[in-house]
Amino acid sequence: MSAHSEQFIAYLQGLRERDRGALAALRHSLAFAPGSDPRAFPYVERFASNAVHERDARRLALYAVAGLFARHPQQAEQSFAAALGELFQCRDSASIEGRFIALLGADAENIVEYLRQAVSLLAADGIGCNYARLLDDLKHWMSPHADPSRLRQSWARDFYRAAQTATETTDDE
């Protein structure tokens, strides 16, 4: 994980503790395309100042993760995909796997909508994820010049490994 991503998540955690209005604005920003809700600018633009233009993947990823974090501010060590794998196992629901596969098929233009839905599911079960890692992943996924196929494979490994680990733990008990 990059230091910049970790600093941004630490900043969001600070907002969580001292400025509930900021989190409300960031949550509301998920209703718009990343980086287009002016109410989110005061909280994110300071971290996006090095972005070349408004469609810069890093800038878009910052706005997306800010909104997702505000929706469910539970930081954890596990990756986003592993968190979904845990959820899949806990709920024993094929629809979770179907949503995850749909997420893997998303492109840069619609990934935030799939992530928003997935974060809502994680929030309902109180399962957190590593937002700094998600930010780094999204920077790559949303880049117009990158091929996210390796990232998709990595997410699939994390998802199924977490689902399998949860199954093995349950079987051992």
TrEMBL record:
| Pfam families per the UniProt record, alphabetical | CRISPR_Cse2
Q: Which organism is it from?
A: Pseudomarimonas arenosa
Q: Which domain of life is it from?
A: Bacteria
Task: List the protein's name.
Answer: Type I-E CRISPR-associated protein Cse2/CasB
